[in-house]
Amino acid sequence: MPHGPAAVIRFSSLGDVLLAAHVPSFLRLADPERRVLFVTKERFAAALRGHPDIDRFYMLEDGSADPAAPAPLGVRGGLGDLMAHLKREGIAEVIDLHQNWRSSRVVGALPRAKRSLPAKHAIRRRLMVHARWLGPQAIPPILQTYRQLIGISADVPVRPWLRAALTDSEMARARERAGQHDFLLLGVGARWETKRWPARHFVALGAAAGRLGLRARYAVAPADHALEDELRSLLSGDPRGEIASLGLRDAAALASFSRAIVSNDSAMLHLGQALGIPTVGVFGSTVPGFGFAPGGPRDAVAEIPLPCRPCDVHGKRRCPLRHHACMERLMPDQVLDAVAALLGRRRTEATTEAPPSAGVERR
User: Fold this and answer.
1) Residue 261: which of 218, 208, 315, 224 has the closest Cα?
2) Number of continuous H segments (helices) and E segments (strands) in the chain
3) Which CATH code of 3.30.360.10, 3.40.1710.10, 3.40.50.2000, 3.40.30.10 fits the domain covering 6-120?
4) Would you call 363 exposed, middle or buried from its count of C-beta atoms within 10 A (0-12, 13-18, 19+)?
5) CA distance 219 to 245
6) For 137-151, what is the mean pLDDT?
């Protein structure tokens, strides 16, 4: 007998919403006939538009809507509007993946619904930062936690829902951008500076990708002009390096044609599992033990052990010790080895190292 409708809540941020977007697919695996609603901010609903396992979006207005863009199917309004409409849905279960005051108000407006709340592990993450000597255990991958919450096996494959959500026109534009060459998509940005692998390391990795028979595409958020300018300077005269300054959906469509994604710990990192693309996560001030690293059989992480890691749960504007060694000392060779292992390819040369930059400590 099918279950009643389920409402999944995750308002922000983009990376968390991309991870939460796997939950509707898990719910459909458990019950293919179940109706699934998704509650988020309107900007993130636009990113998830066309999700094959979401029947209706409930979108909190945030002023980001593009009148010219296709609108996701659903209800848009203030929090009170969303709660009023949700009360009429006959929701049997509400899955609160955010667990803040706003999501709690939505849950409270549905008193007859079963409440499902995954462990957030906020205290354990802070212990990993501020009390490492206590030896707090690593947190399981978040998609494993979500599977457990829904009641499906931990080894059930992740459905690449985003590949199904992209439109024919988005895929056609990406196919034209992709061209005929195999390539890596490199997610060079991140909101916090301490989570960014240096751009010169990314460029060195992109140049070395030729040893695996690959080219490189550097994905940059359209608003990140400083990073784009830095990349253009580093790539000057190199016809093999192409910069893709794209919004999320166009970047995802381009990523779907790549052989692998290499990304900082940012939203771009989570495109891999949503598309079914091998992914290497580059970790510095944060660690895979926080639970947000990709954990599929074709995923890997690149990091170096340092006693100062992790230095923050989310990331910082600058390294507290002012050396950013966690990223500076992570060499392109190590990341290239991770890519080669995932793709089963051999490098044609022995080493690749980024050029030193002034003021960077080399050991």
Assistant:
1) 218
2) 15, 12
3) 3.40.50.2000
4) exposed
5) 6
6) 96
Scanning the chain, the segments in alpha helix (DSSP H) are 14-20, 22-30, 42-48, 79-86, 101-108, 122-130, 142-150, 161-165, 168-178, 199-208, 225-234, 248-255, 271-275, 325-328, 332-343
Residue 189 structure tokens: 């940005």
Residue 317: what residue type? R
* Stated pTM of the model: 0.93
Q: What is the rounded CA–CA span in Å between residue 40 and residue 355?
A: 43
* Interval 246-300: pLDDT, tens: 999 999 999 999 999 999 999 999 999 999 999 999 999 999 999 999 988 899 9
Which amino acid is it at 308?
Answer: C
State whether residue 245 is helix, strand or coil: strand
Q: Domain spanning 164-343: which superfamily?
A: Glycogen Phosphorylase B; (3.40.50.2000)
What is the structure's pLDDT at 241?
81
Cα(349)–Cα(227) distance, integer angstroms: 29
pLDDT at residue 238 in the model: 74
The Cα–Cα gap between 282 and 277 comes to 16
Asked if omega into 258 is within 30° of 0 (cis), the reply is no
Query: Phi, psi at residue 192, to the nearest 5°?
Result: -100, 135
Q: Can you tell me which residue has the tokens 């049997």? A: 92
Residues of the chain with CATH 3.40.50.2000: 6-120, 164-343
pLDDT score at 348? 66
